[in-house]
Amino acid sequence: MRIALISAYDYAHPGGVTEHVRHLAAGLRRRGHDITVFAPCSDADYADTHPDFVRVGRPFPIPMHGSVARITVSFHLTNRIKHYVRDGNFDVIHYHEPLMPVLPVTALRYSQTVNVGTFHAFARSNVGYYYGKPLLKRYVRRLNARIAVSVPAKEFVEHYFPGEYRVVPNGIDVQRFRNQPPLPEFADGKCNILFVGRLEYRKGLGYLLRAFAQLKRSYPAIRLIIVGDGPLRRWYGNFIARKQLEDVVTAGYVSSDELPRYYASADIFCSPATGDESFGIVLLEAMASGKPIVATDIAGFRHVLTHGREGLLVEPKNKRQLATVLEALINGPTLRRDLGVAGLRTVQQYDWERVIDQVQDVYRQASARPRPVPQMRLEPTLSPN
Fold it and tell me: How far from 200 is each of 16, 103, 197, 207, CA to CA, in Å?
């Protein structure tokens, strides 16, 4: 099949949707499909070295759901997008966050082929969906098939746009995280607690730092390794300095090639997110590395991890409970091993090859359904406000 994958987000910037699209594209190519990825990109030269990628606009940071979405907001791209989807002769166009401006929703407007949409996001509410529902439901009707990456993501979008959604989870390259050597600087006998995530409030690092400060007084041979970057980097750095916390390593952004070795160096993985997580890909990475997990009991994590099997769940924003559970794992090497072994079994169901089988099945079913109407007559496409 000739397939277009369309993403709303900066393709040169690390993020869950971008990594999903990247792995999906590679997997579909392995199956013999002709894949072209369309996305905004802050690296103007990226398309020159990646012939199967088309850069559509320059991304801008837009605050959204407690995070920052790097999307294109230029409405001057409308004719280009129309040309791409009309003249590409695609059998399927697969939109990731199909209702996001400007690229996905404009492409969906002009598409004359089979449309599949994957909804990745989860939040307690969405002002754009609430006020834009009268307009956006016309776009949703143009989708021949709808995918959600998790049950929470499905329930979230279904609240605004009822209909049939198939849950197809995020995938992971399980083998990439297996049997990796630990980094030598962390192989000194200390108990390493690993955090991986964007440095923003909703990822909950502040609560982990406070729990670590409490534990460090009783357990001097523990270390906290922080992988990630973001808007609160300076604030967390000041907190660490003010509290004079020892054995806190801030690694910053780590490439995908290096990341598995950080997991291999960990004794415990911790993700204390406060909410608005649709899935929790970092939990899968920890499982694929055979590591025990401490995570918050939020919807996006609860559907990936079973408390007491692959890891332990704690109440969000509760630093004392977080410290207590981490202490149990620090003192429990057998428990750590058992949780890690269970994670290795569980993560197999999320291997990319299995996920791609499910996506191809959605494509086949969508292709058998009636095609969308030729064009929507809506001017303007969307209000920039």
Answer: 15, 26, 8, 12
Mean pLDDT, the chain, whole residue set: 92
- Give pLDDT tens digits for 168-219: 999 999 999 999 999 999 999 999 999 999 999 999 999 999 999 999 999 9
Helix ranges, 193-297 (H): 205-216, 233-242, 259-264, 281-288
Identify the bridge partners of residue 270 per DSSP, sorted by sequence position: 294
Q: How far is CA 75 from CA 81, 132, 135, 136, in A?
A: 10, 17, 17, 17
* CB neighbour list of residue 101: distance below 8 Å, 6 or more residues apart: 8, 71, 73, 382, 384
Q: What is the mean pLDDT of residues 344-350?
A: 96
Architecture per CATH, 175-349: 3-Layer(aba) Sandwich (3.40)
Task: For residue 260, give the 3-state DSSP assignment.
Answer: helix
Q: Cβ(143)–Cβ(121) under 8 Å?
A: no
For residue 308, what is the DSSP state? T
**Structure letter (DSSP) for residue 9:** B
Minimal CA–CA distance to 117: which of 87, 69, 161? 161
2-171+352-367 belongs to which CATH class? alpha beta
> Which segment of 47-51, 124-128, 308-312, 336-340 scores lowest on mean pLDDT?
124-128
CATH 3.40.50.2000 domain range(s) in the chain: 2-171+352-367, 175-349
Reference 193, options 289, 269, 111; nearest CA is 269
Over residues 197-211, the pLDDT tens digits come to: 999 999 999 999 999
